Amino acid sequence: MLNKDFSQILELAVFQVLIACTSETKIESYVVGGFVRDHLLGRKSGPDIDIVSVGSGIDLAKVVQRKLPGARPVQVFKSYGTAMVQWNDITLEFVGARKESYSEESRNPEVTSGTLEDDQNRRDFTINALAISLNKNNTGELLDPFNGAEDLKNGIIKTPLDPSITYSDDPLRMLRAIRFASQLNFEIESRSLNAIKENAERIDIITNERIVEELNKILLTSEPSRGFLLLEVNGLLEKILPELTELKGIEEIQGQLHKDNFYHTLEVVDNICPNTDNLWLRWGALLHDIGKAPTKKFSQKVGWTFHSHEFVGSKMVYRLFKRLKMPLNEKMKYVQRLVFMSSRPIIISEDIVTDAAIRRLIFDAGTILEDLITLCEADITTKNPKRFQRYHDNFKVVRKKIVEVEERDRVRNFQPPITGEIIMEHFNLSPCKEIGIIKEFIKEAILEGQIPNEYEAAYNLMLEKGNEIGLKPNEK
Ligand code: ATP
Ligand code: MG
User: Fold this and answer.
1) Which residue's CA is the closest to the ligand 1 atom numbered 11?
2) pLDDT digits (tens, 9 = 90+) for 271-304
3) 7-154 fold
4) What is the CATH topology of the domain spanning 156-240?
5) pTM for the complete prediction?
6) Cβ-based neighbours of 368, under 8 Å, separated by 6 or more
7) Residue of 50, 179, 202 to mutate, ligand 1, most atoms within 8 A of C-beta
């Protein structure tokens, strides 16, 4: 059931001001797009409200800004004919109703001013073209020339005009269609799907930033596999993330099969969603196996192997982020580390878990430890229920042991109890490789559990090791 009652929202202060200003300036105006769609669906909307006016959106914005106490100064984007007003946590986006005509090479259309109907025509989907009047004569009336409300009810993504032209004019809409389909759990109408397939090549004219924005939104849905499968079957994924489509397929040699790592990856991404909203952890899940395509080998002895795929995959993460103009900062490094370490906890959980193995895992994973285990749990996609249960039980043991070992040994963010300075002082040394040897020896002993992570034990070990490698204590 759609929520077609707008009376309550129109009583909100922001709409009261919009209605008053529309009347005062006599600039015909409407709420349009995502806000209307989400209200009808009874869905929590984003922070922005789009206002379209037949006339100058910028002029209307200026009047509205003055009436909203504490609103930030109007930001005007003259070349787009748009303006933005920020008030508390609400962003109002004003645009003049426009008509658009596109040329082949670019995403940027020729724009002229137009009627509300012209403006609704240029919108991407019928469900995004709904408008609510803010005008005196018909305040609160829903203007829906393309039956968008019907499509909302039936869960259908459809373009107002000919889909081939709509997608070819602005290929970003292909990604938006798929993103909305996954966010709202809607179906894309078949004519649209065909048009997307036809136009997949044109995604090349879209900037990486915009592509990534849509990918992120798909990744943040509760079942990203829906979006990624749509991207794949329509030929878009191959263009955007070929590292993933390379994982597709099952090969058989001498009766030995390996799993299809593409579908496996999508399962892992879906699995992780209930356990984290962290976008970058979800990216980690999406990319954790990308190193498997270039490292895949078959040998008579051991069958299929993906030797060092974690290392190769982590290098690929950098190149992928760079290509897509994603941040090359600590987020990228975090994803790299997840990929690089993605098999470590699994190896541990398959074995009897020793304290030493846990200590090493804590030491090596540091701050990403919990996320890494969350990823590894999501990585369990076996269809054998007994094995499924056993692996999950093993991870419970791993988690429990981590808490125990951490409490006792404090090896996360490991600070050696014996510093280089202490070693230099004791043996009267200037900086030299022996210091490193002793420090490494102490660290290893702590991780292996041969000595506790404490000053005195470490000090004694320093004396022992120093003596062994021929160092003489300071006489003084
Ligand atoms: P959300 O903000 O939740 O992602 P939205 O529908 O508000 O969804 P925006 O990107 O904020 O999406 O765009 C606002 C409106 O502008 C859309 O509802 C749609 O009517 C129109 N629009 C946005 N991008 C396009 C596009 N590429 N082609 C045509 N219309 C578009
Ligand atoms: Mg929006």
Assistant:
1) 34
2) 999 999 999 999 999 999 999 989 988 888 888 8
3) Beta Polymerase; domain 2 (3.30.460)
4) Hydrophobic Seed Protein (1.10.110)
5) 0.90
6) 334, 337, 338, 341
7) 50
